[in-house]
Design a protein that fits this description.
641 residues, alpha+beta, Penicillin-binding protein 2a (Domain 2), Beta-lactamase, seven-stranded mixed β-sheet, 24 strands, 22% strand, elongated
Length: 641
């Protein structure tokens, strides 16, 4: 009996000792792991996704928004060998994936691999039809650009993770990007939710809406005219800018060739360059307008002063400066009108480097304008001490200096507005998801660069360029006074540093109406083949843009030209123009947002279809809509992309 008692007591003692040891083990060695396991069982984190902010034009037209699209994934370890063969046989062609790439995804050791992101309904259906475990989908947001190619290089693009990569998408990333919120959820032993952190307003996570100075209707006009002109000239590329000379607002900016940011996979990198600020060129004879402004400002010449143009050839040391035509005596105004290189060289020598160089620096040449777009270059302007006599002369007619199209547009804006250098910009304002204004850009005058009377005299000379006998007659617009300057320059051959025998840049820069400027328009055509002259190639593009812009805005002078001219040049502070809004745009909006916006704006809409607004009647920007009635045609997001 005693032996049995001792055996039972010993066994209980051993068991208690083992339990005690296990408790010590749990408490001292495994406590962190067990605590983490319990936390995972009773706590859950939910990531609340938000939408990237929209980009709008100056009238509220949507230029970029976010829509939801399915993305496909695979969990390779859950796909059997037999199913892998089925997947490769069906999905390779359906998803447009190379067989080797698809095989690599299926053979991956990772737990999760993306098959394809932002797929179409057809691609989504192909995966669902297989019914194979290990294949799945999630809904993600994707950036959508309702107007396709419109202002593509200005807007830029956002990546698959909705972060900005180029253009406005990159510059205003901090405003546009959505914030991700993590909510903590408590669950009981059965997995039921018992406590959830409350989020007051989910919209607070959405990115801000950024409104631009661009007018998408005017942008369409500019792109159409530029595309037609570049195609007709069989040119390599082209750029066009429309600038408000009083405020510095960029109303339109186009490049050709361009791209559609909705389908950018195979687009050559060169097509994505914003040539207006990323590339520089020698301005050629358009620079003579700035020479004339500097010479008049310093009292070196008067418009009526006569200059002998050497009958077409002027020897300067070992160099010879030529004119396109033989000229004898010309007034300064006539020399600008017919674009005499020899007259420009003589004016430049009379002006001198100590006056001309600082004038160009004040106009902003040699450094970036500071526009709110990425990767802007500053061009090239030699240091004053490096200007020899021949450098001074050649710079006077735009050779040996390099500028960007935007720099030239801004310089001509200073002439148009009476002598003030304005700061160009694209971002107008940003409004948070809750409706609060985050920032707003105001017109800024950097400095005065010339007296109003100087600008007025230069404008009169630039009008003669467009009149009969000048080099810019193809820029004429019936019933409108136009001021501008033609330019033709040689390109430097890459790697040699020598001027090309064939490659040219043709340009035209001007403003209108000349007596009360509303638009500065800069057109640059790279390597035209039909003609090398700016007056033949670029001026017609200027005319097409200018005529359509005036017609669109309904800008007709309402006072005698003399009074308008005086008012324009006496104006000291920039003012925003009165711009008719026209029919608003609902393109790219969901049905719900379109209905809400129509209600807020007082429009009566008729909706057909489901999804997002694909088209509308009347079109955005139309002058009027009887009874404020609109017809909106909707389509699934996949049909818009």
């Amino acid at each position: 009996m005693n032996a049995r008692i001792l055996a039972v007591g010993g066994g209980i003692t051993v068991l208690l000792a083992m339990v005690a040891l296990r408790i010590v083990q749990f408490t001292l060695t495994q406590s962190p792991d067990l605590a983490e396991l319990a936390r995972r069982q009773h706590h859950e984190r939910i990531h609340i996704a938000a939408h990237r902010g929209a980009i709008l034009d100056r009238h509220g037209e949507t230029l970029a928004s976010s829509i939801e699209r399915p993305s496909l994934y695979v969990r390779p370890r859950r796909v059997s060998a037999a199913d892998r063969a089925r997947v490769q046989g069906v999905l390779g062609e359906a998803l447009g994936l190379p067989p080797r790439a698809l095989a690599a995804k299926l053979a991956s050791n990772a737990n999760f691999v993306w098959l394809k992101r932002a797929v179409s309904p057809r691609e989504q259906s192909a995966v669902q039809s297989l019914g194979i475990a290990g294949l799945g989908e999630v809904t993600e947001a994707r950036r959508f650009y309702p107007h396709g190619r419109a202002a593509a290089q200005v807007l830029g693009v956002a990546g698959v993770d909705l972060s900005g990569i180029e253009g406005i998408e990159l510059v205003y990333e901090q405003d546009l990007r959505a914030r991700t919120r993590v909510l903590e959820i408590e669950r009981d032993a059965l997995g039921r939710e018992i406590l959830t952190e409350v989020m007051d307003d989910p919209r607070a996570l959405d990115g801000a809406t950024v409104q631009l100075t661009l007018d998408v209707g005017l942008q369409a006009i500019v792109e159409s005219a530029l595309d037609a002109g570049v195609s007709e000239a069989r040119a390599a590329a082209g750029t066009a800018i429309v600038l408000d000379p009083w405020t510095g607002e960029i109303l339109a900016l186009a490049n050709a060739p361009t791209f559609d940011p909705n389908h950018r996979g195979a687009i050559p990198p060169a097509n994505r360059r914003n040539r207006a600020i990323n590339d520089f060129y020698e301005p050629g004879s358009t620079f003579k307008a700035l020479l004339a402004a500097a010479a008049l400002e310093h009292g070196v010449v008067r418009p009526e002063d006569m200059i002998f143009c050497e009958n077409g050839a002027l020897a300067v040391g070992k160099w010879v400066i030529h004119d396109h035509h033989r000229h004898g005596w010309l007034s300064v105004a006539e020399a600008i009108a017919v674009s005499s290189n020899i007259a420009a060289a003589k004016i430049g020598e009379r002006l001198g480097r100590d006056r001309f160089h600082p004038f160009l620096v004040d106009l902003g040449f040699g450094k970036p304008t500071g526009v709110d777009l990425p990767a802007e270059v500053g061009g090239m302007l030699r240091q004053r001490g490096d200007w020899s006599r021949i450098n001074l002369m050649t710079t006077s007619f735009g050779q040996g200096v390099a500028v960007t199209p935007l720099q030239m547009a801004r310089a001509f804006a200073a002439i148009a507005n009476g002598g003030q250098l304005v700061q160009p910009y694209v971002g107008l304002r940003a409004v948070g998801a809750s409706g609060e204004e985050l920032w707003e850009h105001r017109p800024q005058v950097v400095r005065r660069v010339m007296k109003p009377e100087t600008a007025k005299a230069v404008t009169a000379m630039l009008e003669q360029v467009v009149e009969e006998g000048g080099t810019g007659t193809r820029a004429q617009i019936a019933g409108v006074r136009v001021a501008g300057k033609t330019g033709t320059s040689q390109k430097v051959e890459p790697g040699t540093g020598r001027y090309s025998a064939d490659a040219r840049v043709a340009s035209f820069v001007g403003f209108l109406p000349a007596e009360a400027p509303k638009f500065v328009i800069m057109v640059m055509v790279d390597e035209p083949q039909t003609s090398k002259y700016g007056g033949m190639v670029a001026a017609p593009i200027f005319r097409a843009i200018g005529a359509a812009a005036l017609e669109r805005q309904g800008l007709v002078p309402a006072a005698p030209p003399a009074l308008l001219q005086q008012a324009a040049f006496e104006k000291e502070e920039p003012a925003l123009p009165a711009v008719p809004l026209g029919v608003p745009s609902f393109l790219g909006l969901s049905k719900r947002l379109a209905v809400e916006r129509a209600r807020d704006l007082g429009w009566i809409i008729q909706v057909t279809g489901e999804g997002y607004v694909q088209s509308q009647t009347p079109a955005p920007g139309a002058a009027a809509a009887p009874g404020k009635e609109l017809v909106l045609s909707l389509a699934p997001a996949s049909d818009l992309l």
